[in-house]
């Protein structure tokens, strides 16, 4: 049941399932990603990484590498240009307090220690294998099991990292029904299909960088500070990204190394990380150990939740996998204690990976609630429904818009939930055990200040520019749709340019905030351009609309027209000519106000999953998946649906396949390739259904849209684990759920 | 530190290589350690074929060699003298998209687009092989092409639509 709010302007393009406007470029090979940068004859750089987890470089023998034909230069800490060590802040998004190639210190296995620069890719790669580096190794801690340095961060990105309310211990101890379970999730690695890459070129003291980044402005800021340049002298270009999922969000050391290599050689340099290097060079999702204690009444009403999270970070950078963050707001419960503890290890620094914190957090909490349902003898969906939070209990604020109960309702109906047998391990079809699971999805709705420029020119072109990104999210297309509605033109006729630091400012393409941040800025810019065009149309003596009041003019079919007589019209191209300044150009901006003092902004959803387990073959499969989502207004149902499908596929990977295995003694990643690190393949994925319960969230922004990038993965792993329990009677509290965890465990385990 | 007195590898002489690239003869001077993928990307200016792993695990570099889908990152260029290579740049007939390309756009069978050239050429190959008759066949035949964005259901729908129209 969706609610239509009358105030929404009638729109023609927004809300339509438009094909991607960048689709043609992507299916013909014309889309240029960073490694395809139009730079003639660059040098090629190959990075060499440390092979110890802690210690120092004792000796380097470069002679064989330097003697190889084609090798131009070798940079190590001994000869690389000096750059300062920067600390993270929101304008300088460095992940590690460790500038590359500056000292002999080794902080983790897989740290960049040298770069070989050569005339060809082949020579650079061969040269990298010829470098001989000796180390002095010190004792390292690389496992949560043996961690000695544990920190208790007070805050993480502005949120209390140790929130409490009520008297959770007392309420838990007094509860009629208690669940106490520990869930573990492994390290995961983003593995976008496009490895990280930087092509750097210096010209007259100015630096141009083609970089696979989700944040051209952030990358520009770090490079400018590192080389002590004005930001205007650094340009970062990233028009197409081959996926990112968080690992291209903050600044990692390799663009700096590429820029150093280009500076030293005075030639453009292309540096592409290998797939193996992607496992240590740009973050990963931290392992988590989560103890969840739930106290409830026999009717399944929550009385207390205690959620203790242990995760890891490195010695050189802090990242908190905030798995307990949404525990404080997702359900109606008066007594809460959430703790986050971070073990500092001799490992690379973890980072945000699709739905950071929320993905592992909703697995643990969603599993524990399922365990509670069985302990109470209740339908798991009923437990979710009867604990629905009418307000955000963590802040006491009402939600701006919340359709979670409708998501449960619509999902249950579409999935056929009422036909579910209550008992676990009670449903067989053919040789397979079948089970259904459900869990709640959620992600906060975030927003940042952003700007955009709309330019109308004499050739009739409508151009939209902003320093935002399209990681495959559909930004190109929705920005065209938004501008099209304001200007009354066909969205396919609009040129959208993004991913260039010289364009108006936009935030990192992360946190599911780009649509809600940049969309309203484009809307504002387009409105300003429209008003400027109307002013020319009604004031110029040569205009067919001369003398009309603005209210009698509208934009439609590519021109301004008289409402009374649509044949009385002037095209934008003519208006630009009449205006006499060569173009109509408008800068728009949008920013959040103080609405978060009055309202709480979240998206919600319900994930329904069917699994089948063939005991004889030990084959576990997801056979159906349905996600029902409440994300405000959906700007493009085609691309939004694809985002949700992608999130659910990520959930399947997280639940059943993905695990970055680190050698517990030496700290090296041993699954550092796509044969040993399993991302879902086509045959792992069933048909996936996606439904939207659409209620425009106009308190959040003028478009009424919240983000759709990350919520899709949340709750999926719990729904799968719960379906596995329903199918087999085995509760797996340790991801991924590989078949061996279901063998020999027997129905009583759990 | 175990320093080695390893002599520098000798420069490997380039060899003339002629192949049929998207219907046209093209000649390159190629060293023996150059892969077909790096030849296409770095020397032929055909950057549509992507390098996702450089070890045959992801499928992003898939091209057609004499009509057969092939991982160009695992193919040495010099082993393909005289072969007909079709890359994503050579698939459309002028401005008209190949039916698989058009179906990928219509079904939103990609997000970031990085795996897409490989997916499309793999799909063209799978259809030609007769391995795209059912959804399950498509899933199996396309499982050598990873899509990290998770567009698989839409990829299956796009290929099935092309198969139906044949």
Topology:
The complex is a heterodimer of chains A (750) and B (166).
Chain A: H1 23-28, E1 43-49, E2 55-61, H2 63-67, E3 71-75, E4 105-106, E5 112-118, H3 121-130, E6 132-137, E7 150-151, E8 155-156, E9 159-160, E10 164-165, H4 168-174, E11 177-185, E12 197-203, E13 206-211, H5 216-226, E14 234-237, H6 254-265, E15 269-272, H7 278-281, E16 288-296, E17 302-314, E18 335-345, H8 358-376, H9 380-386, H10 404-415, E19 428-429, E20 432-444, E21 450-457, E22 462-466, H11 475-487, E23 494-498, H12 514-539, E24 553-556, E25 559-562, E26 569-571, H13 572-579, E27 583-590, E28 602-614, E29 619-630, H14 637-656, E30 688-692, H15 716-728
Parallel strand pairs in A: 1-15, 13-14, 17-18, 22-23, 29-30
Antiparallel strand pairs in A: 1-5, 2-4, 2-6, 3-5, 7-18, 8-9, 10-18, 11-16, 12-13, 12-15, 16-17, 19-20, 20-28, 21-22, 21-27, 24-25, 25-26, 28-29
Chain B: E1 15-21, E2 24-30, H1 36-43, E3 62-65, E4 68-71, E5 84-86, H2 99-106, H3 116-129, H4 135-141, H5 152-165
Parallel strand pairs in B: 1-5
Antiparallel strand pairs in B: 1-2, 3-4, 3-5
Structural commentary:
The complex is a heterodimer of chains A (750) and B (166). Chain A has 750 residues and is an alpha+beta fold. Chain A is built from 15 helices and 30 strands. In chain A, the strands form 7 sheets. In chain A, strands 3-5-1-15-12-13-14 form a 7-stranded mixed sheet, sandwiched between helices. In chain A, strand 28 and strand 29 (619-630) form a beta hairpin. In chain B, a hairpin with a 2-residue loop joins strand 1 and strand 2 (24-30). Chain B has helices at 36-43, 99-106, 116-129, 135-141, 152-165; strands at residues 15-21, 24-30, 62-65, 68-71, 84-86. Chain B is elongated, with a radius of gyration of 18 Å. In chain B, helix 2 packs across helix 5. Chain B has a 5-stranded mixed sheet with strand order 2-1-5-3-4, with helices on both faces. The model of chain B is unreliable at 1-7 (pLDDT under 50). The chains are: A alpha+beta (750), B alpha+beta (166).
């Amino acid at each position: 049941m969706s609610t239509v709010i009358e105030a929404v302007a009638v729109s023609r393009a927004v809300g339509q399932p438009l094909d991607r406007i960048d689709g043609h470029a992507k299916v013909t090979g014309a889309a240029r990603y960073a490694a395809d940068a139009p730079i003639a004859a660059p040098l090629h750089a190959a990075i060499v990484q440390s092979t110890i987890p802690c210690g120092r470089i004792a000796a380097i023998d470069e002679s064989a590498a330097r003697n190889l034909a084609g090798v131009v230069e070798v940079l190590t800490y001994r000869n690389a240009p000096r750059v300062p060590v920067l600390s993270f802040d929101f304008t300088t998004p460095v992940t590690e307090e460790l500038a590359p190639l500056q000292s002999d210190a080794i902080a983790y296995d897989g740290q960049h220690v040298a770069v070989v620069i050569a005339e060809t890719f082949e020579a650079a790669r061969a040269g990298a294998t010829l470098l001989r580096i000796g180390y002095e190794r010190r004792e390292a801690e690389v496992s949560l099991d043996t961690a000695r340095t544990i920190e208790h961060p007070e805050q993480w990105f502005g949120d209390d990292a140790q929130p409490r309310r009520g008297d959770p211990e007392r309420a838990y101890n007094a509860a009629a029904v208690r669940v106490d379970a520990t869930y573990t999730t492994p390290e995961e690695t983003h593995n976008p299909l496009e490895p990280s890459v930087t092509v750097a070129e210096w010209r007259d003291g100015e630096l141009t960088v083609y970089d696979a980044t989700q944040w051209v402005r952030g990358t520009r800021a770090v490079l400018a500070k590192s080389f002590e340049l004005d930001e205007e002298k650094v340009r970062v270009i990233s028009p197409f990204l081959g996926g990112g999922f968080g690992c291209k969000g903050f600044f990692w050391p390799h663009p700096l190394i590429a820029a150093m290599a280009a500076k030293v050689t005075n030639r453009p340099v292309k540096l592409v990380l290998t797939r193996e290097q992607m496992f240590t060079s740009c973050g990963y999702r931290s392992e988590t150990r989560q103890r969840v204690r739930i106290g409830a009444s026999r009717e399944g009403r929550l009385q207390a939740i205690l959620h203790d999270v242990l995760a890891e970070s490195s010695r050189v950078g802090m990242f908190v996998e905030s798995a307990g963050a949404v525990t404080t707001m997702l359900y109606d419960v008066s007594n809460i204690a959430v703790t986050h503890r971070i073990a500092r290890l001799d490992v690379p620094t973890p980072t945000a990976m699709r739905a950071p914190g929320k993905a592992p957090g909703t697995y643990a909490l969603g599993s524990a609630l399922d365990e509670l349902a069985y302990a109470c003898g209740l339908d798991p969906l009923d437990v979710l429904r009867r604990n629905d939070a009418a307000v955000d209990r963590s802040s006491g604020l009402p939600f701006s818009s919340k359709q979670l109960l409708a998501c449960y309702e619509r999902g249950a109906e579409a999935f056929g939930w009422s036909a579910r047998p209550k008992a676990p391990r009670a449903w067989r079809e053919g040789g397979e055990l079948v089970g259904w699971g459900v869990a709640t999805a959620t992600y906060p709705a975030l927003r940042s200040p952003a700007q955009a420029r709309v330019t109308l020119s004499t050739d009739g072109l409508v151009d939209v520019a902003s320093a935002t990104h399209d990681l495959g999210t559909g930004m190109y297309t929705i920005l065209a749709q938004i501008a099209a509605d304001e200007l009354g033109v066909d969205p396919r006729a609009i040129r959208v340019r993004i991913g260039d630091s010289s364009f108006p400012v936009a935030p990192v393409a992360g946190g599911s905030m780009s649509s809600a941040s940049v969309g309203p800025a484009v809307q504002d810019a387009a409105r300003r351009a429209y008003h400027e065009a109307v002013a020319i149309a009604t004031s110029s003596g040569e205009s067919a609309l001369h003398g009309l009041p603005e209210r009698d003019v509208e934009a439609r079919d590519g021109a301004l027209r008289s409402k009374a007589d649509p044949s009385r019209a002037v095209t934008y191209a003519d208006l630009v000519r009449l205006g006499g300044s060569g173009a109509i150009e408008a800068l728009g901006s949008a920013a959040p106000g103080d609405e978060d003092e009055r309202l709480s902004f979240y998206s919600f959803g319900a994930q329904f999953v069917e699994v089948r387990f063939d005991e004889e073959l030990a084959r576990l499969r997801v056979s159906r998946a349905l996600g029902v989502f409440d994300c405000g207004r959906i700007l493009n149902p085609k691309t939004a649906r694809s985002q949700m499908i992608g999130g659910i596929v990520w959930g399947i990977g997280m639940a059943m396949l993905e695990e970055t295995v680190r050698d517990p003694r030496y700290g090296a990643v041993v699954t550092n390739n796509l044969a040993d690190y399993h991302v879902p393949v086509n045959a792992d994925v069933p048909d996936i259904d996606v439904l939207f319960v659409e209620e425009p969230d106009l308190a959040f922004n003028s478009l009424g849209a919240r983000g759709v990038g990350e919520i899709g993965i949340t709750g999926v792993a719990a729904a799968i684990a719960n379906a596995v329990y329903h199918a087999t009677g085995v509760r797996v509290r340790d991801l991924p759920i590989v078949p061996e965890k279901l063998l020999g465990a027997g129905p009583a385990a759990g | 530190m175990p320093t080695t007195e390893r002599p520098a590898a000798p420069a490997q002489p380039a060899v003339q290589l002629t192949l049929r690239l998207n219907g046209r003869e093209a000649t390159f001077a190629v060293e023996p350690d150059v892969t077909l993928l790096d030849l296409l990307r770095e020397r032929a200016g055909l950057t549509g074929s992507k390098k996702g792993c450089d070890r045959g695990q992801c499928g992003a570099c898939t091209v057609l060699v004499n009509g057969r889908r092939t991982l160009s990152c695992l193919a040495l260029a010099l082993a393909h003298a005289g072969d007909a290579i079709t890359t994503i740049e050579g698939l459309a007939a002028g401005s008209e998209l190949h039916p698989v390309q058009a179906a990928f756009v219509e079904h939103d069978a990609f997000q970031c687009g990085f795996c897409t050239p490989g997916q499309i050429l793999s799909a063209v190959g799978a259809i030609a092989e007769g391995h795209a008759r059912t959804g399950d066949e498509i899933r199996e035949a396309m499982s050598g092409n990873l899509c990290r964005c998770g567009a698989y259901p839409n990829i299956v729908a796009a290929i099935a639509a092309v198969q139906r129209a044949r």
